Amino acid sequence: MILVTGGTGYVGSRLIEKLRQRPEPVRVLVRTPEKAQKLVAGNVSIVKGDVTDPESLIAAMKGVSTVIHLVAIIRERSGGISFERMNYQATVNVVDAAKAAGVKRFLHMSALGVVNDPNLPYMDTKFRAQKYVEASGLDWTVFQPSVIFGEGDEFINTLADLVRRPLMIAPAPFVPVVGDGKTKFQPVWRDDVIDAFIKVLDDHSTIGQIYQLGGPEALTYEQMLDLIMQKLGKKRSKIYVPVPLMKPAVFMMDKLLPKPPVTPAQLTMLSLDNSAPQSATEQLIGHRPLALGDGIDYIKKPNAARHN
């Protein structure tokens, strides 16, 4: 049996769809079962539990041979929704529960560019979580994706929103560019990430491996904006805004808006290289990954639902 944490999220919801095609039973950890009944069908069931509550994980792990751990946050919120609790401690809880239940296989969603640096709390907590998985003694495989795109995503849709309606820190018809716009990313399609996860389920040679996942090309932040403008048929001049000048506005939006276009953590990461020079995507899925320019027609539907 496979247990999936984060199965109702952006990547997890699509992963569950593909796991329905496999023969083994799949169990999805959910905090509120009555809101997740639509997942129950075929080989997929749900179990009540919370990655921040170790006791709730005991029953969830019964009969499980493989755990796919996807839970993480990119924005801290009130009520204890912190990077430390959700990215690091939750991983510790899931790993410990898996070991106690005799689980063997553990697939972990990390992040590209994780680093042990308290000044970068998202990257720091993801780094420490990954290291905990590596030291667990389980048969682990770690994935480090670059920016994940696909219908319902947050990052590319947010850039598209900036093109349509520039932020308060930039007068229209200008679109703001973080820093010099030269930070590199290697956007990878959600389905290619999911296919990589499914591939390693049946490949024991991937045990103990860390895989960078990127698309077929590295693009700068500015190049991504250009591509999005072309796709939307809009032309905007660019105004380059140093990160320190953007911080006050981003901080205020994070405090005042329920869904800010950019969070403080995301702003910091926009200045960090996020390319994947050792990307294993093509090796794992067996074909060339989908390029960003070939897979973002969904941004033409600005009101489409998005996952947080």
From TrEMBL:
InterPro entries linked: ComplexI_NDUFA9_subunit, NAD(P)-bd_dom, NAD(P)-bd_dom_sf
SUPFAM superfamilies in the cross-refs: NAD(P)-binding Rossmann-fold domains (SSF51735)
The NAD(P)-binding domain, residue ranges: 6-148
Domain of life the protein comes from: Bacteria
A single MF term (Gene Ontology): protein-containing complex binding
Protein name: NAD-dependent epimerase/dehydratase
